[in-house]
Amino acid sequence: MRILLLSHAFNSLTQRLSAELQQRGHQTSVEFDIADSVTEEAVALFAPDLIVAPYLRRAIPESVWSRLVCLIVHPGIAGDRGPSALDWAIRNQETDWGVTVLQAQAEMDAGPVWASVPFAMRSASKSSLYRHEVTQAACSAVLQALQRFESGNFVPQSAATLPAPHGQWRPLMKQEQRRLDWQRDSSASVLRQIQAADGFPGVADKLFGQPCHLFDAWPEATLRGAPGSVIGRRETTLLRATVDGAVWIGHIKREGSIKLPAALAFEREAAQLPEIALQDWWRCNTLTWQDIAYEEHAGVGFLSFEFYNGAMSSHQCERLRSALVWARQRPTQVLVLTGGRDFWSNGIHLNVIEAASLGGGSAADASWDNINAINDLALELINTEQQITVAALGGNAGAGGCFLARACDLVWARAAVLLNPHYKNMGNLYGSEYWSYLLPRRVGMQAAKAIMRDRQALTAPDALRTGLIDACFSDAAQTFQAEVMQRAAALASQSDLAQRLATKREARQRDEAVKPLAAYREEELTQMRRNFYGFDPSYHIARHHFVHKSPASWTPRHLARHRDLGWRLP
Length: 570
Ligand code: COA
Known about the structure:
Blueprint (H helix, E strand, L loop, with lengths): L1 E6 L4 H12 L3 E6 L3 H11 L3 E6 L6 H4 L4 E5 L10 H7 L4 E8 L9 E8 L5 H26 L23 H4 L8 H9 L7 E5 L2 E11 L9 E5 L2 E5 L4 E9 L4 E3 H4 L1 H5 L20 E6 L2 E6 L8 H15 L5 E6 L3 E3 L4 H9 L4 H20 L5 E6 L2 E3 L1 H7 L3 E5 L3 E3 L14 H4 L1 H4 L1 H10 L3 E2 H7 L4 E3 L3 H16 L4 H18 L2 H17 L4 H11 L22
Parallel strand pairs: 1-2, 1-3, 3-4, 14-15, 15-17, 16-18, 17-19, 18-20, 19-22
Antiparallel strand pairs: 4-5, 5-6, 7-8, 8-11, 9-10, 10-11, 11-12, 13-14, 20-21
Helix pairs in contact: 1-5, 10-12, 11-12, 12-13, 12-20
The structure holds coenzyme A.
The site of coenzyme A has 24 residues, from α11 and β18.
């Protein structure tokens, strides 16, 4: 079928659906929901058999839905309606939730149901639920709906006629309904409120007397203070007391500014607070905030780094590099880097870079520092001699984050993971992280050029086929983790491991003799220097729009195939 994906943005769910549909032989094109007339034009150009709308913030115009079946992905159970579906589900502590694919009609979310797929709720932030449970259920529901559509004999039913459970209309959740009362609310309640608002719109609050929005909250089991007071900081986070404990606030958006690590958003105030360091930084501790942790099982080291949105600032790269150097001294022969639950890495921290310019500093200098810090980390991985390194991607990876993973000897990905191994979307950024060494040797020079040029998202199975990754297994986070442990333990117990390590060292020496890593780095950084300091400001403009979330005013041509100059209706 010819399927038009109509979406507010090419977010991870839209990317995943696009890839899944193409894999099944459907022809897809993407149009951003910018204006009714633009949608009408896209329909006229592409003449789709139907429209799938994975992520919309506005209604589809009647001129379109009255002529064409438009399938809307709604992150709620059948009958649930309204723009804050997941927010309410978290707030109401639903234990079972779901995704429904319904047909667009005049009344919002009230059309007949083509498919509905349930999932069990997890205690997590809205964005984390969206990236895992919702995305997974949405893919199943859309594929089911398409099968039914193609069969030609399925009649979608109104939600009211379907068997229970049933949702209901719920309005947009306003900030009054999200308000925190630090003199009354328990830690659990504060956590839930912030989780229900992550990563957008956050919870409006005041800190140090300044209005701001809070994101990314974590529990704290032991530390206490006067309710509402900010007791201390740890790395990028601030700890604020509640009536029965305290919560860590990871990210804050101050009025008129952008979302930043909390201790940077209130840099001056945070500098006055005591640093509450973890006693043993590596020991996994779920009862407090911790971003980098290390553990060992069956002779394998596991290094995790839970960086919000997978963005890695210079300081985070340096800390992770130190952790890696420390982990390499352990008596293990396999070292697995597990990244974070939602993202493995999305490369350099564009918000922190932007903050440098907001503070009157140089975004070019901040970009330069960050790319060098992430390169140092990649270099440390490439030069790890005593261990087989494995990047285990339980979450998505983008841009430099993909090549940081590729700097490991092996890359294993959860089957549902998406990779965006390219940089050009960020204002034609050339990219570094030794990609020019790491990518061609895996996929060949031609394929490497195509990957960089085409800027497509790859599903894990696609990435495996191209040779970019080494294995892909298991859809669910839990089973992926268990299988990673099993596979890593099996690797560590292989009798020829010493030989394998020796072969790896020899291969590296041979590569170094042909062309030193320093030469790759210098070539990449020559281009990056132009991106950061040259006369063409595209990267700075693209970063500004990305970080400030400027609404798109057109669909990029590499996505809107129906707008290609040579496009003809078959
Ligand atoms: N720096 C700072 N924030 C980043 C980031 C980065 N490198 N990459 C992603 N984010 C943030 C987004 O701004 C968004 O923030 P929000 O929570 O405030 O909404 C969040 O992460 C999720 O990103 P989103 O784009 O919604 O996720 P996605 O899964 O749909 O798309 C990417 C993933 C990787 C395609 C997309 O985020 C992207 O292009 N990131 C930039 C990658 C990049 O160019 N890095 C620099 C070069 S190394």
